[in-house]
Amino acid sequence: MGKPRIAIITGYGINSDNELAQSFTLAGGDPRRVHINDLIARKPALSEFDVIAVPGGFSFGDHIASGRVFANKLKHSLSEDLRKAAERKIPMIGICNGFQVLVKLGLLPGRTDILADGAKSEADEAAKAKAGDATAAGAGNGFRQDTTLTYNDSGRFEDRWCHLAGDPGSKSIWTRGIERIYLPIRHGEGKFIPRDAETLAALQRNGQISLRYSTATGGNPGEGAAAYPANPNGSIDHIAGICSADGLIFGLMPHPEAHMLATNHPQWQKLGLRGEGEGIRIFRNAVEHVRG
Amino acid sequence: MLTRIEVGQKSPSTDSQARKILATLHENFRLPVEKAATLSVYTLEMELGAAEKTRIAQELLTDPITETFAIDTHLAGAPGSAAGAAGAAFDFLIEVGYKPGVTDNVGRSSREGVSDLLGRPLADGDLVYTSRQFQFWGKLTRADAETIATKLLANPLIETYLIRSREEWSTNPYLPKVSGKVDSHHQPQVRAIPLPETDEALQKLSDEKVLALTIEEMRAIKAYYASPATIAHRTQAGLPADATDVELEVLAQTWSEHCKHKIFAAAIEYTDETGKRENISSLYKTYIKAATEKVRPKAPWLKSVFTDNAGIIAFTEDWDVSMKAETHNSPSALDPYGGAMTGIVGVNRDILGSGMGSRPIFNTDVFCFASPFYDKPIPEKLHHPRRIFKEVHRGVKDGGNESGIPTVNGSIVFDDRFLGKPLVFCGTGGLHPAIVNGKPSWQKTIEPGDRILMAGGRIGKDGIHGATFSSAAMTEASPTSAVQIGDPITQKKLADFLLEARDAGLYRFVTDNGAGGLSSSLGEMARETKGPNGAGGGCKIHLDKAPLKYPGLDPWEILVSEAQERMSFAVPPEKLAAFLDLAGRRGVEATDLGEFSADGLFEAYYQGKLACSLSMDFLHDGNPKLHLKARWTPPRHGEPPTGFWKARDLKEDALTLLSALNICSKESWVRQYDHEVQGMSVIKPFVGEKADGPSDAAVIRPLYDRKEGLVVSHGIVPRYSDIDCYHMTACALDEAVRNAVAVGGRPGNLAGLDNFCWPDPVESENTPDGQYKLAQLVRSNQALYDYCVAYSLPLISGKDSMKNDYGRGKDKISVPPTLLFTVIGKIPDVEKTITMDAKAAGDHLYVLGVTRDELGASEYFRLLGVTGNVVPKVHALSALALYHRLADAIEQGLVRSAHDCSDGGLFTALAEVCMAGRLGAKVDLASLPVELESGAVGSLASGVKLFSESQSRFVITVTPQNRAAFEALFNGAANGAGNGSAGGSVSGPDASARIPYARIGEVTSGTELEIRDTAAPSGPGSAASPGSAASSAPLFSAGLDEMFARWRRPLDW
């Protein structure tokens, strides 16, 4: 086949689309930046693409909560197309704000049973809802939010480069072969929290934990405040990226597209780095997966 | 119908905002608060069913994992929420909401979310208002709660708040549902304003209406209306003989200092210290424009300078780069968050509106504040500098981060005179194709008949009189309507749309709406049309077509409102439909407001009736020229006592300097800026082993697949203005250039931007020292010309802010005259750039450039509490030779790190190089190149060597294998190697000349910066044998840990 066609979704405050497109180009893909409103109008439709990417940024200014208003928009205007894309088994990635969107949409970590079942009656869901209990929220259209990304423990936005360790048991096709990688985080709401211990255990069991924050040598950052800044936000289990149960949908808070060139590395002069940056490995994995 | 939804955290562990507030209350307010909780409150004004309310609360407003909600009831004291976790209600509750009409960004996004969720568009009056609730537990009084509300949580200028005590809540646990709708009973109308006869009455009219016009200007306006031509025109047009309020407001905005730069255009009689008189016809033309014209032949890459919203230079054959820097001082004094945010998003629009539209690719920001530890009483209407600092920082952070533009360079300067007015400089650079739709993109035109389109945000009363207000001194009576709040997301949508429309060729001209609103943008655009006979200019605007945030605005308010996020376009009639269609698909509101004409008239209609008809000539050229006087009398300041060095503990002084506010680490603040979105970063604000060393300049790579880069740097030293603004300016300019050179930039490839922030320099009753302040401005401009020409550095854009004073009489606070000099330049190959951190043990340490006894107005003298009189001077020719040679060395790969010496002098630079590299150093100052006042070679006191702020110097490291090649190059390749000791020669950029430099030591693997110097420093003027390291003795040794501790402590919060 030719170069995989990559949809880079734009609009409403998404802002890392140019460098993400360039990263996919370097990885051998054929990216196209597409405005969300054009996808909703199906000009072009999501079905024309082999990979879907939701870039980082500040969709709707992180108002209410990061990614929530954009996720709400996707849920109410593009959920059918997204569901079909998931059924087509095409790789999807959400980076930073894109990760927040996929998590709040419920596409990550995802309940494949519900995705396969299709939409449930929204009225039915609403009837079940009780004031003060938002557990069933997002269940309409077959999506349910089981994890969240919330305010960093530091209470502030930070731009900081982080060492990350790949989980050898991860099913993510995106992080295949990646033991360690060095990428920047740039967020104020990146603390990963699963619904409960059981959800966390299920993620681990299913190979859905893909990347964790680590020390410079790949070790565990430790617990509590001592883990900062290796774990920059207080994420539970140091989780930086997760994937769907089939390994195709992947989200992460760090920015691989911000390490597309070696000269993006904060110490490239001292280390004598040149050429491609480490982040491209993630995109190349997806391009190669589509090529088969 | 009003619905109130409260959202709170289930557990205190995720309420990080509460933790931050608690820490601030403990550290800064010393209040006995034990616990805090924060809630978000949404008030929905629309018809909703019960199920819809639940869905909105549950699916849109609440996180199912961490949050809980209450509809039309309260979470306070409720089980299952952090707010109720204590089992008892708070001791005090404070709820903060916006005043009606103030931009509520979260409310706007929530409204769009509600519409998406309900699957239907909402009616115009269906709105969502947000407020924030804070609950506190602890032994607080009501006065404490008031303090927390007004000094920390709410800005009463734009926000309202209510307070409930535990007792009040126990008897009545209820908070009102409040509509944020603007009361709109006002019937808009156009009024005729008679111009009174006497000067006194004319001036009163100007003052009362915040027109900020002088009596000469008011007289000119009166004469215009009295002229037979005007009377005839007005009779024919059916306008009253009197001016309309619309016309007066348009004139005031257009003629404001902010828009017209009257002081830079004034005729000035300047008398220097010898009594010599000089007549300057215009500072701008005589110095700024003249410098660029002089340099232009050497800078063929200049494309558009001074005429557009930003300067434009060539980057590659296919791409151009634009840059502009602005200030937003007055709004930031009133509402630091909103003022600073509109500063940054406002200058972004300048870039979007330069040429045919440029894409913002980086931001810079420089702030000047009083000390955050200021402990004297704060004058009326002013905020504490700590609050200004935090809120300005937050505004610029949110504005830049949410817009997806990296903040790559900046600084924070402290001086207590900035209490009166903080300075908030915001810069932006842009990238755009050199050719757009077959035409050079830096040029643009308007044809008569082109439609006037406004796109982006709506118009409200926000920012009315911003331009005229910033042209007046701030007093206790300053208008609150001058405040605006930015909306980065509306602007991001507008920016994305604009670039798409540009590439599709949907408009002919674009500019931003900034100061003066539509009156300025359309007034300027209307000059572009040409009539058949060569004359021309003009436009016809229909004010009632403009989209409003709420009804009830008078026509003049629509025309001058500075409501944000708007751009104005000239659209050919045949492209109108396509323009509106694209805007619609991108969620951007665009409105056809009328058309451009060529009849020489600026005209505005309201509901079909003419409300304003002004001659374009009078509007733009009718304001009388100012005639001002300036007199320079050099000030004399105290010096430290003779022999004072003997009593100093140099190590303790050195460490204390690391804690000086202008020197200490700003990392915890700067790290909150996204400095690498867009993926272009090559040299970041932080460099070194642990990415915490302050880099000298930013380098970015705008085109991912090319090696060309941009270097961005700046210089600013308002302290030196206390001695002489000529040298303040020279030093700011030199600092910007040497910062660029330190990373690999080269003079000749660099362009400059000048931003003046001055106290009022016009002599008057309230400014008795106006002649001195104006002389400072003249001298600053003279230096700007001299050094721009010497460095072949064209100025491409600039701005001035001339009324940075607070109050009147003896309480008046004036900022020190401040010039921010920004440099942008091209670097041929980013892979050759270098950073400031020491890289490896064994590398040689060199100092480049000459050290002189120039401690006047230095950070060190500030520590001693004296100003002194010997301010650093820039020796342009020798500096230029050094810069070219260092650029050669970097290009040849001979330099491993380079750091400039600035605030705090050589010691600070050495300390930063070591700290950033996590390496030690052994340094001997005996061979440091020095120059005495007479120009003779000799020795200086160790303290002078360590702390003098002599300009044009670097600390660099070179690997052992490159040492010989490096020294040969610096000795002048033609005449071979030298001994590497002091030279003091002054040479032009000639490759065979020797550049003053010295090897002063080496980098070690240890953790100490060990410093030695000549055992017994000889007095000034006495000869010393250079390079005689044998006679040196240890001065002191400072550990990395103790340096880090001192350097980080002041601002690590």
Descriptive report:
The complex is a heterodimer of chains A (292) and B (1053). Chain A has 292 residues and is an alpha/beta fold. Chain A has a single domain, classed as Class I glutamine amidotransferase (GATase) domain (Rossmann fold, 3-Layer(aba) Sandwich), CATH 3.40.50.880. Chain A has ten helices and eleven strands. In chain A, the strands form two sheets. A nine-stranded mixed beta sheet of chain A has the order 2-1-3-4-11-10-9-6-7. Chain A has a two-stranded antiparallel ribbon with strand order 5-8. In chain A, helix 1 links the parallel strand 1 and strand 2. In chain A, helix 3 packs across helix 5. The longest helix of chain A is centred in the C-terminal third of the chain and has 12 residues. Chain A is globular. With 1053 residues, chain B is an alpha+beta fold. Among the domains of chain B are: 170 residues, Phosphoribosylformylglycinamidine synthase subunit PurS (Mth169, Chain: A), CATH 3.30.1280.10; 246 residues, Phosphoribosyl-aminoimidazole Synthetase, Chain A, domain 2, CATH 3.90.650. Chain B contains 31 helices and 45 strands. In chain B, strands 20-22-19-23-21-24-25 form a seven-stranded mixed beta sheet. In chain B, a hairpin with a 6-residue loop joins strand 34 and strand 35. In chain B, helix 2 crosses helix 3 and helix 24 runs parallel beside helix 27. The longest helix of chain B is centred in the last third of the chain and has 21 residues. About 3% of the residues of chain B have low confidence. At the A-B interface, helix 1, helix 3, helix 7, strand 5 and strand 6 of A face helix 1, helix 2, strand 3, helix 3 and helix 15 of B.
Comma- or semicolon-separated keywords:
heterodimer, A: 292 residues, alpha/beta, Rossmann fold, 9-stranded mixed β-sheet, two-stranded antiparallel sheet, 11 strands, 28% helix, globular, B: 1053 residues, alpha+beta, Mth169, Chain: A, Phosphoribosyl-aminoimidazole Synthetase, Chain A, domain 2, 7-stranded mixed β-sheet, 31 helices, 45 strands
